[in-house]
Amino acid sequence: MNAKIPEGKLSEKWSNYKSHAKLVNPANRKKLDIIVVGTGLAGASCAASLAEQGYNVKSFCFQDTPRRAHSVAAQGGVNACKNYKNDGDSVYRMFYDTIKGGDFRSREANVYRLAECSANLIDQAVAQGVPFAREYGGYLNNRSFGGVQVSRTFYARGQTGQQLLLGSYQALMRQVAAGRIQLFSRHEMLELVVIDGKARGIISRDLETGEIERHSAHAVVLATGGYGKIYYLSTLAMGCNGSAIWRAHKKGAYMAGVSWIQVHPTSLPQHGEHQSKLTLMSESLRNDGRIWVPKKQNDTRHPNDIPEEERDYYLERRYPSFGNLAPRDISSRAAKERIDAGHGVGEMKNAVCLDFSKAIREQGKDKIEEKYGNLFRMYEKITGINAYTEPMLISPSAHFTMGGLWVDYELMTTIPGLFALGEANFGDHGANRLGANSLLQACVDGYFIAPYTIPNYLAGELKTGKIDVKDPAFDFAERKVRRQLGDLMHIQGHLSADYFHKTLGKLLYDKCGLSRSKEGLEEAIKEIKMLRERFYKELRIPGDGKVNSELEKAGRVADYLELGELMCYDALTRNESCGAHFREEYQTPDGEALRDDQNFCFVSAWEYKGKDAEEELHKEPLEFTEVELAVRSYK
């Protein structure tokens, strides 16, 4: 693996790269085709930016409109080191917070570039009309997020992702109207086409007709989000899946950091056995909300009836420097520890309290409503509880995947011509993502990085000519897709795809979730293998193979059953605790993660070696020149 990190000082690497990147003459750009799969913030911004330059772009999404991309669910804000509060923020401070937040398991050069480009994003978004919150005098406002001690998060109440997505959607549709982007909604990518070692197109399925289609290009971009829905119960929308990146992995793209899965601390708790998802409450609520549990075990009193002296504000007690703004991995594990110890609240005793009474007394209800009003309304619609008068009940739930396709500094995978953006790559977050960095990475990848790095690659493709969809590689890929769809339809067992998805999700949450152990992971690998065998014997898909949502689900679950095994194997081979990867055997006496920098200061990248074959591990060493590896402490 060659990460292609530019020479020079850390602060000059991106400038050096841009200064020497190859360019494509404007007259030649119309000769080059690019496929972008995914229309969330990363995909829409990338497609719009490349089309603006003059390339021919095809944009794909499985939703009925790009506006339904899951970027809308990132509610709390987007980070940028503008230092508007004059509280000591800087590019370096943001870089260090992100490196530390990821428990020193991310690539220095990429993280510094993320911080460096962050300030430009705010200017871009404001120019697009994103209605960021403003102070009385008109200045853009900021708030804090977990894992930092400055205010660098720009926000639009509790709907920042939606507002940013509307900005990228407008840019995308402008290029659609100009004829430079062909938009294929309700299309799902089912296979990557590789010709002579390079990504040259995709096989997709029209979800409204069931037709299988071929699409060729000189470069393919995957911006399809993360695979957190593998747990079934998660904060992700039901349609979110990992199939695009997994199909690319099976064609030669390495997967990296696969077991680094973020569990979000502020989700609504599970309330029954028949739920299909969990609802995310923005982390921004932790700015003013205080988290606590009853000191008494199995306390059945209503939260309002528990006096102050009988409440355990456990984050403030354990992490006094950061308190309720401790990073997500630490906050989630702390909540699980209290719940497991019998201090949980709610009907299923699986939640903790998020209390705004002190903030309302000090600031007034109007001020809290101004900052979080839509979140409080959403909470009341779902639960029937008025959080202005009693605490919200929250619990940890699967959320974000730090792992994904391995990419180099140019965001290109190990397959030349295949790029991965946003949550689809293993990214900038290491073993734990800081809040409000997901919107940032998606936007920076799409608006500011890919528009330089993809043309740098395409400059060498001018003599290639049009890619012919009649090439034998397309024939082979289409036959493979049709065979898989047919095989799934013909199993004719008696269990639904949802049954296998739920079973896999619970297994992973118990044994490869907030905490892992050698014994549990080995058991999980065996159980997943058996579950996969049952899947191919007992699955039943009703209906026919044309327009069939159950067939769509089955294909995604088939991929999850393979990906889930790799997740467990990745966790099993990393004999340390770091960030969201908490191995029970490797912890400090007071229960914190215990890293092993001597043996595991690398990114695990996995190469697919064929059906039922063990994947091969490749190690990308992580070298730190600007920061010292330190024990991560928020106390």
From TrEMBL:
Domain FAD-dependent oxidoreductase 2 FAD-binding: 33-439
UniProt key word Flavoprotein: yes
The entry's keywords: Flavoprotein, Oxidoreductase
Cofactor: FAD
Gene3D superfamilies reported in the protein's UniProt record: FAD/NAD(P)-binding domain (3.50.50.60), Fumarate reductase/succinate dehydrogenase flavoprotein-like, C-terminal domain (1.20.58.100), Succinate dehydrogenase/fumarate reductase flavoprotein, catalytic domain (3.90.700.10)
Keyword hit for Transferase: no
Domain Fumarate reductase/succinate dehydrogenase flavoprotein-like C-terminal: 501-634
The protein, known as: Fumarate reductase/succinate dehydrogenase flavoprotein subunit
